[in-house]
Amino acid sequence: MNSWFDRLRRRNRRESEWREELDSHQAMREEWHRARGAEAGEARSLARKDFGGSLHALEELRAVHITQWWESLVQDCRYALRGFRRSPAFWAVAGATIAIGIGASTAVFSVVDPLLFRSLPYPKDGQLVSVGYFGPVDNNEFNVVSSYLDWRRLQTPFQSITSMEPQPSSSACDFDSGDVPRRVLCQFVEANFLRTFGLAPALGRDFTPDDDRPGAPVVVLISHALWGTAFGNAADVLGRAMVLDERPARIIGVLPRDFEMPQLGPADLLVPEQLNSARPRSQNSSAFLRTFARLRDGVSIRQAYQAMLPLYEDGLRKDVPAELRPEVRLVVRSLRDRQIHEVKAASWMLLGAVLALLLLACANVANLLLARVAARRRELAMRLAIGAGRGRLIRQMLTESLLLGLSGGAAGCGLGWMLVRLFVRLSPEGMARIEQARVDLRVLAFAVAATVAAAILFGLAPALEQPRAEALAGRGAIGSSRLFLRRFLIVAQVAISLVLLTGASLFVRSLWKLEDQPLGFRTQNLVTASFTLRRQQYRAAAAQSAFFDQVEARLGSIPGGGLFALTDSIPPRGFMGRPYSNIGIVGRPPVAANGGMVAFRWVSPGYFQAMGIPILAGRAFLERERASGAGPVILSASLARRLFGNQSPLGQQLVLDGDGRAFPVVGVAADSKNAGVAEPPEPEYYRLRMAHSDRLGRGGVAVFRTALDPALLSRWIRREFAAVDSTLPVDIQTMEQRVDRFRERPRFLAAVVAGFASAGLLLAAVGLYGLLAFLVAQRTREIGVRMALGARPADVALRVLGQAGVWIVIGVAVGVAGSLAFSGAIRGLLFEVSPWDVVSLVVPALLLSGAGMMASWLPSRRAASVDPAVALRSE
Amino acid sequence: MRRGDQLQGSLDLLILKTLERGPNHGFGITLHVETVSEGLLRLEEGSLYPALHRLEKNRLVEGEWRQTDKARRARVYTLTREGRRRLAEAENNWTAVSRGVRKVLRFA
Question: How far apart are CA A804 and CA A810, in angstroms?
Answer without folding.
Answer: 10
